[in-house]
Write a structure and sequence with these properties.
Structural class: alpha+beta
Number of helices: 6
Number of domains: 2
Shape: globular
Helix content: 25-40%
Strand content: 25-35%
Largest sheet: 8 strands, mixed
Oligomer: single chain
Order of helices and strands: EHEEHEEEHEEEHEHEEEEEEHEE
């Protein structure tokens, strides 16, 4: 009933508008209350120059920082041996290469094998069982070994849970693996007085913990030098922008953030690396 966002391939994604909106909301309350600046004027100006004006002033200028949709890179999946491992495919890894080239990031990726349908390359013997790897209760024939992905998100996960294996499946198989890895929770709304069902049941779809997405941003050459800031007394004041918007975004976006509207029940917590 409430599915996750999906791209044109049916894979989970985070639209750029959702990503930028969540990151903006993370900081906006530090500078504004009811649309009025409650911090230093230059801090409010730097924030607006990077993330764009508030809705009531949307025609003033456009944000020079453009975010990209966050694409799935690897998803945790159940494994008969080893409890769980990351699953990816050539298609998912191609998003990393595409974005790295688009924004000029120096990301080095190994050449991945291209398994056939129903087969898998895996990083460790501990996931193999009689020549197969059983992922999400389905058998995949082992086609060979592959090295783990050496990317910052996986290093962060390693600090928390230790070594986690990787499996590379075919692009034909990855959509099914991803679909079976998503969590579906059924919920009801109870009447306050009788504790009987008022609404429901309905289903909500969630991304499993430790899933890894890739996104990026690039900066336009035209950048505002002065922006209009509404002060606490209600007056609009032109304030100089003292920080480069792109450098400002790079400084502030890293760290935890909440995506979606379910943060009060512990959903949507991500870490930007």
């Amino acid at each position: 009933d409430l599915p996750v966002q999906r791209d044109e391939f049916g894979l989970p994604t985070i639209w750029a508008s959702s990503l930028k909106g969540a990151l903006r909301a993370r900081f906006e309350l530090d500078f504004f209350r009811d649309g009025r600046c409650v911090a230093k004027p230059e801090d409010c100006a730097n924030f607006l120059a990077a993330f764009g004006p508030r809705p009531e002033s949307a025609s003033d200028f456009a944000s020079p920082v453009a975010f990209l949709d966050a694409k799935l890179v690897a998803i945790p999946a159940r494994s008969l041996r080893g409890v769980w491992l990351y699953v990816t495919s050539p298609l998912l890894l191609s998003f990393v290469k595409l974005y790295a080239e688009a924004v000029g990031a120096g990301v080095q990726l190994p050449e991945l094998p291209r398994p056939g349908e129903g087969s898998v390359y895996v990083t460790s013997e501990r996931y193999k069982y009689n020549g197969y790897v059983v992922i999400n209760e389905r058998k995949y024939a082992v086609a060979g070994d592959v090295k783990p992905l050496d990317l910052p998100p996986f290093e962060e996960v390693k600090k928390i849970v230790g070594d986690v294996g990787f499996a590379v499946v075919s692009d034909e198989d990855v959509v099914d693996v991803v679909k079976r890895s998503l969590m579906v929770q059924y919920r009801v709304r109870l009447k306050q007085d009788s504790k009987t069902v008022e609404t429901g049941p309905w289903s909500e779809e969630y991304i499993p913990p430790f899933a890894v997405f890739v996104s990026g941003y690039y900066c336009a050459r035209r950048r505002p030098q002065r922006v209009k800031v509404k002060m606490s007394d209600g007056k609009d004041v032109e304030v100089d922008v003292t920080k480069d918007p792109c450098e400002y975004v790079e400084e502030v976006i890293k760290g935890p953030a909440w995506l979606g509207g379910k943060e009060t029940v512990g959903r949507g917590l991500v870490k930007v690396i």
